Amino acid sequence: MRYDEYGDVDVLNVVEVERPAPGPAEVLVRVKAAGINPGEISIRKGMFHDRWPASFPSGQGSDLAGVVEELGPGAQGFSPGDEVIGWTDARASQAELVVVPVAHLVAKPAEVPWEVAGALFVAGVTAYAAVRAVGASAGDTVVVSGAAGGVGSIAVQLARLAGAAVIGLAGEQNHQWLLEHGAIPVAYGDGVVGRIREVSDGHVDALIDTFGGGYVAMAIDELNVAPDRVDTIIDWGAAEQYGAKIEGNAAGASTEVLAELAGLVETGELEVPIAHVFSLDQVRDAYRELERRHTRGKIVLVP
Q1: Can you tell me the distance from the alpha carbon of 196 to that of 144, in angstroms, rounded to the nearest whole number?
Q2: CA angle at residue 89 from 55 to 236, to 5 degrees?
Q3: Cβ neighbours of residue 287 closer than 8 Å, sequence gap 6 or more
Q4: Neighbours of 189 (CB within 10 A)
């Protein structure tokens, strides 16, 4: 998957390129599944040009799961044929073959489906970092905005595993899923503060914001949550204004965290909901669906 200029989904094209070759301490992986993420939309539109400029032609994608095809010089710990989960920082995972640093790979448990494995890294480590950032623990009440989204659905479960009571803000179509995963569902929109107060007996300890649009201000100004127990992965301006945290993917990115999350999926303690699976040549449709911001869980591409 390549694009040659910033723009909407119509700039995305699937093209034939030369087979990549792994360099020192690198592994060539044949991709079985690759997740897509909202940040990729903003990068492709040029909204993050000052922070993460694209060099054209640009590939896309971080998440991946696949089979080791070839080892570069000095790459150790894996063999051809091994099933792996990992990530690339080179915007390259939405492809049939991708070169990955061996330090960015972990073994894929056999019980973890390809689609789940390919969607695990970005959303999983982001949710992990956010739950850790707000210090969720037994006795806490934690609110999660966008609680049925890719990051939110995982954050809800990780906060519950940490012992916290979780209030999940989501559309009514996702309330049953939240209930089944131990959360208290609350509809977003007008009156949400009152609904949160009603189900929390007026006390909220922490808030994880995966959606933006005023939840940081709501937590601090209206729910009296301490700024150091508010984490947003999207509303950086509000975080700076209020002194809230912005810990997400960068804070959680490690093979140790990825392996821990894969283990939780393997044992059935963590579900990564898969909303849709698209083939690579349907990449434009996949991102159109993602931009609607109403999917439960993750959207995945398969070559």
Answers
A1: 11
A2: 85
A3: 9, 12, 36, 40, 41
A4: 9
Task: Please measure the distance between the N-terminal and C-terminal CA atoms of the chain and give it in whole angstroms.
Answer: 10
The pLDDT score that the predictor gives to residue 48 is 87
Sign of the C-alpha dihedral computed for residues 259, 261, 262 and 267 taken in this order: positive
pLDDT digits (tens, 9 = 90+) for 137-180: 999 999 999 999 999 999 999 999 999 999 999 999 999 999 99
Map residue 274 onto helix, strand or coil.
Answer: strand
Nearest to residue 188, comparing CAs of 145, 153, 143? 145
Distances (CA, A) of 81 to 27, 34, 66, 71, 129: 12, 18, 9, 11, 31
| Residue 245 vs residues 59, 88, 222, 229, 248: alpha-carbon distances, Å | 30, 25, 18, 8, 9
Diameter of the chain by CA atoms?
60
pTM above 0.85, yes or no: yes
User: Binning pLDDT at 50, 70 and 90, where does residue 54 land?
Assistant: confident
Q: Whose CA is closest to 30, among 64, 63, 78?
A: 64
By 3-state DSSP, what share of the chain in percent is helix, strand and coil, each rounded to 5? 35, 20, 40
Domains in the chain, ordered, with CATH?
9-120+273-302 (3.90.180.10), 123-250 (3.90.180.10)
pLDDT by residue (tens digit) across 74-132? Answer: 999 999 999 999 999 999 999 999 999 999 999 999 999 999 999 999 999 999 999 99
For residue 293, what pLDDT band results from cuts at 50, 70 and 90?
Answer: confident
